[in-house]
Amino acid sequence: MSRVRGTFVSSLNSGLRRAMHPSGLLALALTAGLWLGSAAQAQDTQIIYPGSMAVTGFSGTIIPHFDEGLPPGVDPVDETFIDTTRATLRVFDVSHLGGPAAGQLVFTPPPFEVTAEQIGQVFGLTYDDGVRDGVPSGVPNLYAGATSLHGIRIVTPDADDDGRPERQRRGTAGATFMDGQFGTENGGGPGTIWKIDGITGQVSKFADIDTNSGPGIGNLTFDPIHRQFFVSDLDTGLIHRIDAEGRLIDSFDHGVAGRPAHGLAPVADDGSVMDIQGAAFDSEDPDSWGYTQDERRIWGVSYHGGRLYYSVGEKSEIWSVGIARDGTFAGDPRWELTVKADKDYAVTDIAFDNSGFMYLAQRGPVENRYDYSQFADSGKGEVIRYWRENPDDPATESVWVEVPQEYAVGFPQGNRQSAGGLDLQYGYDADGNLDTSVCTQTLVNTGDKLRDNPALAEQLAAGGPLAVHGVQITPKELVKPANVPPFGSWFVDFDGYFEDPEVEGHVGDVAVWHPCEGRAGYYEEIPGGYLPPFYPPDFPPPGNLPPCLDVEDVQYYCTPSGLEADLYLHDHAGFGGDSIKAQSRTPGVGVTSPMSHAPGTPYTIGITGHYPGDTVDVGLCFYRKSDKDKGGYYPCCKMTLPLRTPAVSCER
Fold first, then answer.
1. Of 316, 295, 309, whose CA–CA distance to 384 is shortest?
2. What's the pTM value of the predicted model, to 2 decimals?
3. 52-517, what's its fold?
4. Max alpha carbon distance in the chain (Å)?
């Protein structure tokens, strides 16, 4: 079978790329070099290392039996299908970028690839913790969620004996999803989460939200403390909780249980579904695809500091809900902020760095051109970051700053080419080499047309092709007005084809494996000002937090021995502490702390002798056990934490 590769179609035999225009005419263009090299296949060696960058995107198209020609009068677009042999997920080695950032396209080794035949079209990504058979391996597995964000295509059986099924624009009897849409050939569907083994590259179906009729998964995140996943469902608006074995445990309904916490009326799912055999379905009209209502539609999800953060709707609101000690939803939904951006676009990805900044990526409204050219309204999506007010301003509704910082994404006018994916990466040295001793120092985000600006064509020419749809890599301190235009960034193309400047929405999410445990010496000044890390001889006054430690959340529990408090501590300066010593700074109150601490769990302290509802000052010493074991004095990050205890007595 002759294949026609590329975002639209191209002929490998002639070395020419045929770009399909909406009119159906074929135009010839010289094929640019394939910078990615040949496809990597599943292998018996490790495929994920610290710094590995996974990216999702549309797999491209093909006209089966193209060498046999098309009958006169047949529109080639009607005979163009998803190329199931090409990758919809790639894992890149970006450890050596070849030199200082200068706005250039980066050469990478051939990436590991997972094809549309294996998993269909996917968007959201996350990693687990690499625990295998109960033993940490140091190598995580990668997970990807089925998506409708790269379009919905349906077919009916071959009716004209040309060896190709018949494409359909509208729902009709006998219609099925096109091969390569949801990995149905491999047992998948629109609610499938796929697992890619980080050692062998083996692909398997991890979990399936079988009630999802076609809208697919918004995004997914891993909770390393309870070893579970959270998955947003665009069909129902539910956030599903899934255990480490892929079993659905329960769900959280923001529309019903979340909205009232901010004085909003509850909104239940309207029950609409995607019916590709019904006359109401229109492949070019996302409003007919069965998405739940905008007010309850969850896009991005991110587990951080004992809470699950999530984004809602097109006029994006960021909310969070606590995760209890047993891993269940704590039932305390909290509105965090309403995104301030020029356009009311969905936030499809959320990430946090180790300084407590929250990063958000917008993606333009869903589209689905019949000719495969456009899956999102591109060119106006922003990448921004928020941080908590310090101290909190009581005059503002949110505890986060009112106006976020923005990044320049891509070279086109406005520098707002976000495609909706982002993550944090280690730092890079002056020569573009990955420095794994510096944690979450670099921002990676997906975008369209990243190097396409005619006004800068001469300056950009030396850095490679202009039609780059992929990932921008930027030192995270380069917020606007710095890095405009973004010559302080590097760029990676998703599929290595560069003659498709007009496509939009063909790249998806990005996720980096960046374990940071035990890394010391990192510090970034937080707006509002903290001094560099220091180790005072005594506990400082309450509220005077040393910069090496933040307390992100406190959860209380009654036990047979009295009140216990689980402390979720954030080592944002990279001090590398793994132990605490707690002392009561309130006369008459006793505070105890365990002698050991299990990695990935909260720090638990016991409190006795207080009156319920009292504020108890607890002195915390945060240190490395290896330093203490040497004997003598050892570094200790000290703070005094005021804890307002529950008004309920734990006495029985």
1. 316
2. 0.79
3. Neuraminidase (2.120.10)
4. 92
